[in-house]
Each structure stands twice: as structure tokens, then as C-alpha cells.
Design goal:
The complex is a heterodimer of chains A (257) and B (292).
Chain A (H helix, E strand, L loop, with lengths): L3 E10 L2 E11 L4 E5 L6 H9 L6 E6 L5 E4 L13 H5 L7 H10 L15 H14 L4 E5 L7 H18 L2 E5 L3 H7 L2 E6 L1 E6 L1 H6 L1 H7 L1 H12 L28
Parallel strand pairs in A: 3-7, 3-8, 5-6, 6-7
Antiparallel strand pairs in A: 1-2, 1-4, 8-9
Helix pairs in contact in A: 3-4, 6-9
Chain B lengths: L4 H25 L3 H20 L4 H19 L6 H22 L7 H6 L7 H20 L1 H9 L1 H6 L4 H23 L4 H12 L6 H26 L3 H29 L10 H5 L10
Helix pairs in contact in B: 1-6, 1-9, 1-10, 1-11, 2-3, 2-4, 2-9, 2-10, 3-9, 6-9, 7-9, 10-11, 10-12, 11-12
Classes of the chains: A alpha/beta (257), B mainly alpha (292).
Chain lengths: 257, 292
């Protein structure tokens, strides 16, 4: 039985259809990335999986007893709520001190345990959020643009950690990301979403599909170029509408990494 | 010992303070201050209705407060801003309550006692109710503590861990109604919300974790009620308002101390200052950056 099976899922928010006819199946050990423009329903799909939005139709079946680790896009903690990093990691269940120390080290932020959560930088907090999600030893890790606020090295570390986690815990990872070039290399499967699933498959197949290019335009080319050259020092935030040179776009795909 | 009205009053005050402290922390963290107000103001309607139907005032207040809290929960996020909605509900409940009281021509009731409390008139039966109610709230909040905290941080984060934020909200709503019902006798309708919020707010500058804040709020609340009771006895002032005044003074002192503490820690050379990475300053602006 797959960890998660979604069949013909429909979700409406405030009377407006946000997702329709979604098909998605996740197995243990898979890293799957959701890509799609703003408002395409990526976060809503994650929220439907954790049960925060009720589907208007279709089936969403989680394996019984499934443990979910969730890293939200944004988490604003009210400044009136005092909260150390250690206390935050202990929510909702307490863990041994040693485990917490290891978790912080693995997240690349050792010794932060006594800091107030509100005093952390965006990148530090993002790492803490991931560390907290991993403490639950999840079967399924959901990441909603989890590398927001991380610098390049932080992002590279982050994806390396995800790959390690998958190997160690054998969990499935479903993540939303806009960093197409990094994502493409880090995922087994890419699902391209725009209210419905436009296309899904291996990164190579999705990149080559016309539906994906129609959705992302010139970005496709960049992503493909980065994917093929496997460069890490990306200049990914070029202005929208600036078409990059596209000699490789139609070249036959290589499966090299 | 319980035959002394001052002892009964002190115990009643302590009971309410202890129950209000952890709950008040959640009210502050979740920005529900007005929510507490609306629930408390509805209590006067509860008083009027229970006198009209000649039922127990405690039960009447409990039911009406619970209905009010539920109504506010249901209506929130349906077109009105929360503060507008609560402003409307709190004051209309109070107004309707006062109007309803005026219909009770046969009964002469001491309205002031309900508006501002009458802690010195707490009887043994009242004390039992207050103790039971306070114990119930402390147990309920203690039992759900972790889940409540997680849900307070973020609804989705809670859901992902298998916690239903709606259920936790219900726990808070229920506890709030119970605290309002037991605090009515102690500080009265108009000042119940103060007993929830002020001790929690006064505790905030000195706390590193939510648990410490709840404990410290309980200490401050207890100090305010017992100290206020004493002060009212010496100064011959109304007890409920004196208790709240003392809490307010403690809040002012704690705010000052908090400011001082922050100033001091800023004056020290901070080792935690984030070093500006060289890469960060040299990053090309988007306009100049091209894909390779």
C-alpha cells in the first residue's frame, strides 16, 4: 500500500475551485517535488494532505498510522509567547536532551537551544523547523518552500540533508519549491501543478514536456541548462520576461548527473 | 477557619487567580483579549436570565458565557474583523443584560455586586464552586497543555501532528466560560478580563518558556488578589477594583523592569550579532544577473 494515494481530488476554497482532478501517489523513499506558478494550489494540496482543508470530492487516503513531518512556508510566532528553541523542538512531544542536541547539530545550527525562537534569523528558523519535523521520525515529510530565507550554501546543505534523511528514515518527501534548477536534481519525480496536474514524471520527462514549458516559459530553459550542467553557484533570480539564450532547450536530454 | 469571611475571600481570590493565570496566557498569546471581554460581559445577561428563571446564577452565567464564546468562535472569519465583531458582541451582551435586569421588578438585586464583584460575601457554597471550577480549569488546561501550545503556534503545524486545532479552541472556550462563572463573585463582570490578561502580560518580560510564564502569571495573580484584599481592608476601598489596580501596578513595574533589562542587554557587546557574510554583500542585483 502506498503511503499516500490521492485520486480525483477536488478542493474548493470560498466557493472557488483551487484543485481539481488531482492524482498523486507516494511511496516510501520517494522524493517528489511540486512545481507550479503562484496560486496553482501547491500549498493547498499540502494542507489537504495534513487534513487542514476538507476535499470537496475525490479520495485522499493516508496509510493508517502515518506520521507526518510538516515544514510550513511561514510561521509567525507571536512575540508575547516566550519560546526557546529547545521548547519548540519539544512540541508536541518531548525528546531526550541528547536527541535534541544531535538534531540541532544535524540541522547545522548547534548550540542554539537556549535562544528565543523570535530572535532567530529567517534561515536559522527554517532549519529549526526542519529539525523539529525530523524529530518525529516521519514517514512522510512535507516541505512547503522550506528553503525560503536560506542562502546558497544553506540551500545546498538543506537538500543534502533531505537526501540523507530519506536514506536514513526511508521516508517519502513531498516538497513545494520554486528553485527549479536545484529541485530538478534533488527529486525522483516532479509534479507540475496548475490547479490540475499538468504533467508528472522524472525531472527529465517533465522538463521536456510541452505543458511544463507552457507554464514556465523561459525558466524551463534555465532549469534544463542547470540540470544538465549540474552547476551549483546558481544565479537563478533573473528578471521575469528576460528570455535566456535557449540553445540547449531542444537538444536531446542526457541523463547524466 | 472558613468561618472568617476574610479567609474565605482570600481563598476565593487565590482559586480564581490560579485558574485564570494559565488560561490568561493563552488569551494573550492568541490575541483573544477581547474574546475574554465579550465572554465576561455576557455574564450579566446570564445573571439576569438565571434570576428570571430562578435557577442557580453560577449555572446561568456558565451557560450564557459558553454560548457567547461559541457564537464568537463561529462568527469569526465571516466578513467582519474580529475586533469589530467582539466590540459589538461584548457591549450588546452587557446592554441586553442590563435591560433584562431592569425587567426584574419584583427582585431587588444589587447590580453593583455583579458588575464589580463582592468577594467579601463569598460563602462556603461559593467557595466550593470556585474551588471546583478552578480545579477543573487547571486540570483541563494542564492535560491539553502541549496540544494547546502547538495549536497556538500554528493550526497547520498542529494538524500535521494529529492535533485538531478546533478541539483545542473548544477546550479554551469551555475553560474561559468556567473562569468567568467562578470569577463573577470575586471581581465582577467588568473586571474578569483584567484578571486574565494583566497577570499574564506582567509575567511576559521575565520568561523564557511558556510554562514559566504561566507559573509566574499565577504568582502575580495570587499576589494581586491577596494583596488587593488586604489593601481594600486598610483603605476601605471596593475589593474587586483594588485587586485589579494592584495587578495593574505590578504590570507597570514589570514593564519598566523589562525595558531596563532590554536596555542593559543591548548595552553589552552582543556575541550573537550575525556576521554579515561577504557573499551576501556581493550578490549581484537581479537586473544585472543573467543566466549563464
Amino acid at each position: 500500500m502506498p503511503l499516500l494515494s490521492i485520486d480525483d481530488l477536488h478542493v474548493a476554497l470560498g466557493g472557488r475551485t483551487v484543485l481539481e482532478g488531482i492524482e498523486l501517489h507516494l511511496d516510501r523513499g520517494e522524493i517528489v517535488t511540486l512545481v507550479g506558478p503562484n496560486g496553482s494550489g501547491k500549498s493547498t494540496l499540502l494542507r489537504a494532505i495534513i487534513g487542514a482543508v476538507r476535499p470537496a470530492g475525490g479520495r485522499l487516503v493516508r496509510q493508517p498510522g502515518l506520521t507526518i513531518g510538516y515544514v510550513p512556508q511561514r510561521l509567525a510566532i507571536d512575540p508575547t509567547l516566550p519560546m526557546t528553541v529547545t521548547r519548540f523542538l519539544n512540541l508536541p512531544r518531548r525528546h531526550p536532551v541528547q536527541t535534541l542536541r544531535q538534531a540541532l547539530e544535524r540541522a547545522g545550527v548547534p548550540g542554539l537551544g537556549r535562544q528565543q525562537v523570535t530572535a532567530l534569523s529567517g534561515g536559522q528558523f527554517q532549519r529549526i523547523l526542519l529539525a523539529r519535523a525530523l524529530l518525529e521520525q516521519p514517514d512522510l515529510l512535507l516541505l512547503d518552500e522550506a528553503t525560503q530565507g536560506l542562502d546558497h550554501r544553506g540551500t545546498a546543505d538543506f537538500y543534502r540533508q533531505i537526501a540523507n534523511v530519506r536514506r536514513e528514515l526511508g521516508c517519502a518527501v513531498l516538497m513545494v519549491s520554486h528553485e527549479l534548477h536545484v529541485v530538478m536534481r534533488a527529486s525522483d519525480r516532479v509534479v507540475c501543478l496548475n490547479r490540475h496536474v499538468c504533467c508528472q514524471g522524472t525531472p527529465e520527462r517533465v522538463l521536456a514536456s510541452p505543458a511544463y514549458r507552457a507554464l514556465f516559459g523561459p525558466d524551463t530553459v534555465d532549469a534544463l541548462a542547470f540540470y544538465r550542467h549540474a552547476h551549483d553557484h546558481a544565479h537563478h533570480d533573473h528578471p521575469a520576461g528576460t528570455p535566456a539564450p535557449a540553445p540547449t532547450a531542444t537538444a536531446p536530454l542526457e541523463a547524466s548527473r | 477557619m472558613l468561618d472568617d469571611f476574610l479567609v474565605r475571600a482570600a481563598l476565593a481570590g487565590l482559586g480564581v487567580a490560579l485558574a485564570a493565570a494559565p488560561l490568561g496566557c493563552f488569551v494573550v498569546w492568541r490575541r483573544m483579549a477581547y474574546f475574554g471581554d465579550a465572554t465576561a460581559h455576557a455574564a450579566i445577561l446570564g445573571v439576569a436570565l438565571s434570576l428570571l428563571l430562578s435557577t442557580s446564577i453560577f449555572a446561568g452565567v456558565l451557560v450564557v458565557s459558553l454560548m457567547m464564546a461559541t457564537l464568537v468562535s463561529l462568527l469569526s472569519g465571516r466578513g467582519y474583523a474580529m475586533d469589530t465583531l467582539l466590540g459589538v458582541m461584548a457591549h450588546s451582551a452587557l446592554a441586553f443584560g442590563l435591560v433584562a435586569v431592569s425587567f426584574l421588578s419584583g427582585v431587588r438585586i444589587d447590580l453593583m455586586a455583579y458588575l464589580f464583584g463582592d468577594i467579601l460575601a463569598v460563602g462556603k457554597g461559593d467557595l466550593a464552586l470556585i474551588g471546583g471550577g478552578a480545579l477543573l480549569v487547571v486540570c483541563l488546561v494542564g492535560w491539553r497543555w502541549s496540544a494547546l501550545l502547538t495549536a497556538t503556534l500554528d493550526g497547520d503545524l498542529a494538524r500535521a501532528s494529529g492535533i485538531d486545532p478546533g478541539r483545542e479552541q473548544l477546550v479554551l472556550t469551555l475553560s474561559l466560560a468556567v473562569v468567568v462563572a467562578v470569577a463573577l463573585k470575586v471581581v465582577g463582570v467588568l473586571l474578569i478580563a483584567a484578571l486574565l490578561i494583566i497577570p499574564a502580560a506582567a509575567a511576559r518580560p521575565f520568561c523564557r518558556t511558556p510554562e514559566i510564564m504561566a507559573l509566574l502569571a499565577a504568582v502575580i495573580g495570587a499576589a494581586s488578589t491577596t494583596g488587593g484584599l488586604q489593601a481594600a481592608y486598610w483603605l476601605d476601598t471596593p475589593t474587586g477594583p483594588t485587586i485589579v489596580s494592584l495587578a495593574a501596578i505590578l504590570f507597570a513595574l514589570s514593564s519598566l523592569a523589562g525595558q531596563l533589562k532590554r536596555r542593559m542587554s543591548r548595552a553589552e557587546p552582543s556575541s550573537a550579532a550575525p556576521p554579515l557574510s561577504a557573499a551576501g554583500t556581493e550578490q549581484p542585483t537581479p537586473g544585472r544577473c543573467r543566466a549563464p
